Amino acid sequence: MTHLATLLWLAAYWVLFVPASLLLRPIFGRPMALRPDPGAETYWVPRTSGFSAMDKQS
Amino acid sequence: MKILGLSAFYHDSAAVLLDDGRIVAAAQEERFSRRKFDAAFPEQAIAYCLDAANCSLNDVDLIAFHEKPYRKFDRLLKTYGAYAPKGAFSFRQAMPQWLGSKLYQKRQIRDRLMAMGADASVGGKLLFAEHHQSHAASAFYPSPFDAALVLTMDGVGEWATTSVCVGHGSELTPELELPFPHSLGLLYTAVTQYLGFKVLSGEYKVMGLAPYGTPIYRDLVLDHLVDLKDDGSFRLDQRYFDYSTGFRMFSDAFCELFGQPPRAGDEARLEQFHMDVAASLQAATEEIVLRMCRDLTQRFGMRNLCLAGGVALNCVANGRLLRELDIDGLWVQPAAGDAGCALGAALAVWHQHLDQPRPDPAGQDAMQGSYLGPEFPQPEIDARLSQAGAAFDTLNEATMIEATAEALADGKAVGWLQGRMEYGPRALGARSILADARSPEMQKLLNLKVKNRESFRPFAPAALEDKAAEWFEIEGASPYMLLTVDVRPDKRHAPDPGAQSGTVLERVNRVRSDIPAVTHVDYSARLQTVSAKTNPRFHRLLQAFYQKTGCPVLVNTSFNVRGEPIVCTPEDAFRCFMGTEIDMLVAGTSVLHKAAQDPGLQTDYKLELEPD
Fold this sequence. Notes:
The complex is a heterodimer. Chain A is mostly helical. Chain A has one helix and one strand, in the order H-E. Classes of the chains: A mainly alpha, B alpha/beta. The interface between A and B is large, with 38 and 54 residues.
């Protein structure tokens, strides 16, 4: 059962998740920077809004 | 209004209860469950908090959780998206957990609270703070400052790994952040794992090991692993790390960069190379933190600085901030790790969600010495000790203090359980093992025969607040043991020619000051100053020791052995006393001598604990 679950999860990863990620990347770019950017002056990201509402989980 | 703050499901779960914004009780679950860094739902800590406030779960008005689960899941998905096709096996492990339970934390928390007796309305009382909002609130609201820059640094929350807020009165405004995967906490943890120590518990050991090394790899760290900007912001080059989608913190490229394979676990021999790597990491960390704080305090025009997050437990970096930064005040939340998020989430609800004003702190912090955990009245201590089979004498306080000071002056190791337990990782004289700091043998003896831990690890001093400046280079107080300072030159001994050579053990055993048991190899000490205001009994003991010996300093280490949470109850203390070579146990005013105990009650329970 565990082996079957592993196979199903790995299949979901390779058949669904990876192609979707690779297809979306040319449109949206990578969702996060993985390397330094020598040209950048700063890596700080400004918080343009305050903290999100506390009655939400997102 | 009563607010319950919760931190759970990652590591170091905790619960806190606020009553109209005042901290009534706070404790970590590990102290009750006896599992170090316990991540479980903090049922016992909650029960304690309710008991301390003399109320039930149905009397609690709001419940604050320390992070936002959906945001965390968003980060997880985007991380796999960024690394794809790498990360299949990690994905297989993480996704079932998230889809099976972690995504439904609100329901999980509600069900657990209902199982504890809450009625069905409890789900509507649940609120969620951002993880770094929780850290920032824990750093600012209890601080002694009306206005401050608030910097929080840890491994990662939802997305943020470092965040900058400005606090004014009851306002706490987020300004800047650094997003995952660029994290100073994760950099420190990656090197910790490379050096063969455990993730989330070995970081202290790396900090303690650093003074034995030379930071010859500092530039390697700052040139390759980290791109550090002038303003202190940074990115990590992810080619050298594997924590995002792998099962190890660092990559093969990391090992190639340092030219050696990772140290094979805690039992492998520590070479000079490992000490040099630790020194280099520590030097790079200090450079990043200093550069960041210097720029941010100037940019936002703030004269006070508050810190929280796991990186804020780096007391060496904190000491440098205090010495080298042009600011008026530095305050570090004593429960700076994730346990402190329970407090921060509750305070964020009170001041931010409910918009309640913050009283003028008037230069006093609101942590009550961090003595916020359970306490045991003397009759209960005596009943519990009797039940455990202990032989003891209950004395009056003056006689107990005199007997304890005498034993300490005589070189005895004393277990000391007094008053309310500390909230946070440091033992501050409520659940401590105490010893004579003047003894040249004490560090080795405590490490090997009492604490069962590595010989290189230093011990911290507790000193009378009004005498501390005569022994250490410090102005002001350090009540939470979160700063390192240097032993004063007139208390140091001249270094011998081989001071920086020899094995670790040889170097540990060199006498470098009048208080060698608490003087690290670089003459630094992680100082706690003790005032009569926050811990009068511990202060009286230090006074008595000072009158007897002329030395106002004692070794103060946590009352536990390696791998064990700090003791909570008199029974925990008695078990630790009987399982180690602690000579004397003082619980309240009851005094226990080892020689008077039934040898049949001795248990070598250290072997049952997983070393940290």
